[in-house]
Design a protein that fits this description.
Layout: E1 4-5, H1 16-28, H2 38-57, E2 65-68, H3 71-86, E3 92-96, H4 101-112, E4 116-120, H5 130-136, E5 141-145, H6 159-165, E6 172-176, E7 195-197, E8 210-214, H7 229-232, H8 240-252, H9 255-278, E9 283-285, E10 297-302, H10 307-316, E11 319-320, H11 336-342, E12 352-356, H12 363-386
Parallel strand pairs: 1-11, 3-4, 3-5, 5-6, 6-7
Antiparallel strand pairs: 2-8, 7-8, 9-10, 10-12
Helix pairs in contact: 1-8, 2-8, 3-4, 9-12
């Protein structure tokens, strides 16, 4: 059986050029970048070149890029360290109800420390209201942390508009761009972003490497305590091979490649919606099939079919899909994203799956997935009729 992977929002496979780059650096660049002799200088040069490539990808300065272990550490660092460093200016933070757990859990921690967090609601499409945001903004707001695009339903937040609103406010603006980086064009200067989190494994790079963009002048102590690496902003010996592989993945992810993928993934979405509709499947999209959104994510409610059953049957048929965020897939808790969109009593919460596309997916793969879903739905429908 040929297996087909449709859970690219969870992680993506490393491409051959990225694997080759990482393997090369593991063989040739094993020195500690913090040392002063030739081995260390070579490692530092590789790291600096990688930092430059990555900084250019978001229109940042090289020294505004801090390498981390990934999106979770970057989010935790930006949120917790900002709160602790700026609490004399206020203790109010604004976010959304559909953030990733890497944002929500640090905020829950801060609430226990006496911080006041406003969770902006979303509509049935997973969008926030700018009017709600403006009403929530207070004089004592010190941080706004709002994701660039949602990992479960693909909705995009009005990042540029929020950045504009905050221009004359004391609050620092952080965005979790883990799902968006690698697919959307990002310009931290044009959007007035102060901090931005990413993870390499979402764009065909290695796991356990990412970066936190920190605008020049955004100062707080290192979240990880220890050495003085990353100019005292993130302790720990740098993983130079992974950093170089990350840069290779970014280098390959040109503006032209991003544009082509957005168009192709949107086509895949339309194929699935049209194919299921033509086959008479009883379903609805959670969110919107809108080219403005993250086109690699498609969340579908299959009416009357549990998430577990659909996901398991597709797995047995050779298709990998998700029941929601991969980071909470093993939990019995319902999706907080779908709950925020439709309410805790909605059947969508326990009857939806997430399909997410990546560079490895083809039109033939998508058609095979459509055929498999239609077959499963018809089989389940027949079983119910017999009972």
């Amino acid at each position: 059986m040929s297996e087909k992977y449709f859970d690219n929002a969870a992680t993506t496979p490393m491409t051959k050029p990225v694997i080759d780059e990482m393997t090369k650096q593991m063989k040739e660049t094993w020195g500690n970048a913090s040392t002063g002799y030739s081995y260390g200088r070579h490692a530092k040069l590789v790291m600096d070149n990688s930092r430059h490539i990555i900084a250019q990808s978001i229109n940042a300065k090289d020294d505004e890029i801090v390498f981390t272990s990934g999106g979770t550490e970057s989010d935790n660092t930006a949120i917790i360290q900002t709160a602790l460093a700026r609490q004399s200016l206020g203790k109010h933070i604004i976010t959304t109800a559909i953030e990733h757990e890497a944002v929500l859990k640090p905020l829950h921690f801060l609430e226990k420390q006496g911080f006041d967090v406003t969770y902006l609601p979303v509509d049935q499409y997973g969008n926030i209201s700018l009017d709600d945001f403006k009403k929530a903004l207070r004089d004592d707001t010190i941080l706004v942390t709002i994701m660039m695009g949602n990992n479960e339903v693909g909705s995009r937040m009005p990042i540029h508009e929020i950045g504009e609103i905050l221009q004359d406010h004391q609050a620092w603006f952080h965005t979790d761009a883990v799902q968006a980086y690698g697919l959307l064009p990002i310009d931290v200067q044009a959007d007035h972003i102060d901090m931005l989190s990413t993870s390499a494994h979402k764009l065909n790079g290695p796991k356990m490497i990412g970066f936190l963009y920190r605008r020049e002048g955004i100062n707080f102590p290192s979240f990880v305590r220890g050495g003085d690496q990353e100019t005292k902003r993130r302790a720990g010996t740098e993983n130079v091979p992974a950093i170089a592989a990350f840069a290779k993945a970014v280098e390959l992810d040109t503006p032209e490649v991003k544009a082509e993928r957005r168009q192709r993934f949107y086509h895949f979405k339309q194929m699935i919606v049209d194919g299921l509709t033509k086959a008479g499947v009883d379903f609805e999209v959670n969110g919107q099939v809108d080219p403005h959104n993250l086109n690699h994510v498609l969340n579908i409610w299959f009416k009357g079919i549990s998430t577990y059953v659909m996901q398991t049957d597709l797995d047995l048929a050779g298709f990998a899909v998700s029941g929601g965020s991969a980071c909470t897939a093993g939990s019995i808790e319902p999706s907080h994203v779908l709950t925020a969109m439709f309410g805790k009593d909605s059947p969508r919460i326990s009857q939806s799956i997430r399909i997410s596309f990546g560079a490895i997916n083809t039109e033939e793969d998508v058609q095979a997935l459509i055929d498999a879903i239609v077959k499963i739905v018809n089989q389940l429908k027949h079983v119910k009729e017999v009972q």
